[in-house]
Specification:
The structure is a single chain. This protein is α/β, with parallel strands linked by helices. It has a domain of 158 residues: Rossmann fold (3-Layer(aba) Sandwich), CATH 3.40.50. The strands form 2 sheets. It has a 6-stranded mixed β-sheet, with helices on both faces. Helix 3 runs parallel beside helix 6. It is globular. The chain starts with a strand and ends in a 5-residue tail after the last helix.
Length: 251
Amino acid sequence: MSQDYILQAQGLTKTFAGFTAVSGVNLDVRRHDIHALIGPNGAGKTTCFNLLTRFLNPTSGRIVYNGRDITNTSAARVADAGLVRSFQISSVFSGMSVLENVRVALQRATGLSTKFWLSERRLARLDEPARALLADVGLAADANRLAGSLPYGRRRALELATTLALAPDMILLDEPMAGLGHEDIDPVMALIRRAAEGRTVLMVEHNMRVIAQLCDRVTVLRAGETLAEGSYAEVAADPRVIEAYVGGTND
């Protein structure tokens, strides 16, 4: 495994009761790249994503993160090692303030997450770094607002702030543009660009404009197998990719 790559998979395969959802996938994610995983409906993107983040166990194959074999490592330990994911469905603590949401994430990053009865005075020392993260994602003015009252696009920004609070080396984003209005897409793209500074991002995404503008490299899956890999321009011109999208049903 090359040190140029932060995450690599070799022969990754997942079978469910005789159905092979992912078959022999090889993936090389270069450090500090924004790398997209795309494909038509049923291509195996979500299964592959869940395998890489250890929410599913592979039937066979190998996963290496930062030079360490994590094939049999739990999702929690992988997250502790700096490989942190988001989910397609927005997930925030709706009844807590925006600031408190980020503060909870910072508690884990500072080793305080298992200490449930900390005084407000002790928690207050996390306010400054929490406010700095909110400023980074454009939510400084919303710090005291209930998270559940935020518009959907701003909840996505809050999720990114809580992800960054965990100090990840690599962020895996599951359809970050899902559910966003047209007016929210460019701001969220800008947030991802900023989040990627000094980090690696792997994202499952369907919006081709986003992928073209944001991603350094693209891996295309079809029927659970790797169909193509390269820059957006390279894969977009690949006849096999064109056939997969035009000839099949998109997500």
